[in-house]
Amino acid sequence: MLSPKRVRLVKKIIPHIIFFLFGGLLYIIIERSTLGNIDHYPETGNYYNFWVSLNTVLIQSFILGLIFGILEEYIFKNVLQRKPFLIKLILKTIFYVVIIFAIAIISNLILNLWRMNLTQSDSDLIRPVVNFTFNYLFLTTLGYTFVLIGTSLFYSEMVDYIGLRAITNFFTGKYSKSKVEDRVFMFLDMKSSTTIAEKIGHKQYYQLLNDYYRDMTSAIVSTEGEIYQYVGDEIVVSWYYKKGIKDNNCVRCFFLIKDQMEKRSSSYQQKFGVVPRFKAGIHSGQVTAGSVGVIKKEILFTGDVLNTTARIQGQCNEEGVDLLISQTLEAVLDLGKKYEAQAKGSFELRGRDQMIDLFSVDRI
């Protein structure tokens, strides 16, 4: 089975392939309606067959979409991460021009070789490719492909800005009406953030937050979590209930983040003169989820579980621990031999009438 991280990457690549396949199919339909039943392209005189053209374009579209998706998610995400969108667009466009040009030439060479049964040195093989490449038809095709690239680039940027699940929910209309869900929440907050900001300055502090959140991402994805909100120096992570308790994902996420920060501690120390530390509270319960807003829409979770989780996280300072979880959650997790849960007692958290039992969790 693929890991959650691999599954997420596949889910991000597939829409790029679909975009290009749909675009290729639309192009073939337009081409067929324009040419009718003739057996050649009037512009170049090259041979035309609907089924051959259909298969060729769909294969090209699939390959181009796959290459585009892989490059976007594996290469450009890291290489151009800090570049403005316009610079990204220009650099990627130049690169994809070369890719498209190469795919078009190679595929036409292969098609003509198959159709004419000629050798690669035969001028009759090369002439149709030259005619296709340097004429209005190819330029039109190139421009059409750029529209597909622009759509995919826009989609890719939107996924980065508002999240893959939010995009999926938008298209499926999952939260167009409110619904009740069982979820696990983790409120994770940086320790002494005000002191750090005053020490290194707000510009450097912003960069530290950027690195800090980026370094958490792998742990969140690996444990099937979703980033619900960034609130200053606090991040709210959410899981569907079953995913959150599966393999202790919600607790494991905290310690994976801790491992990553320890691994990167020397880099933080060298770059900022400080290593960020954090504390977290984890709790589970029912929330009402739905889309809110008019000018700007977003998915909002409401319910006592969020307020309680925030209060649990705040209690970490009082108890002198890094991680507190509720008794509700501790009862369903299988902490086993990897983690040790220690009862901290019953607490009356601010804003709640009922007492709540809390446990600190650490690795054995």
From TrEMBL:
**Organism encoding this protein:** Psychroflexus torquis (strain ATCC 700755 / CIP 106069 / ACAM 623)
What GO annotations for molecular function exist for this entry?
Answer: adenylate cyclase activity
Residue ranges the record marks as coiled coil: none
The domain of life is: Bacteria
Provide the protein name.
Adenylate/guanylate cyclase-like protein
Which InterPro entries does the record associate with it? A/G_cyclase, Adenylyl/Guanylyl_Cyclase_3/4, Nucleotide_cyclase
Can the keyword Transmembrane helix be found in this entry's annotation?
Answer: yes
Q: Where is the Guanylate cyclase domain?
A: 184-313
Q: Which Pfam families match?
A: Guanylate_cyc
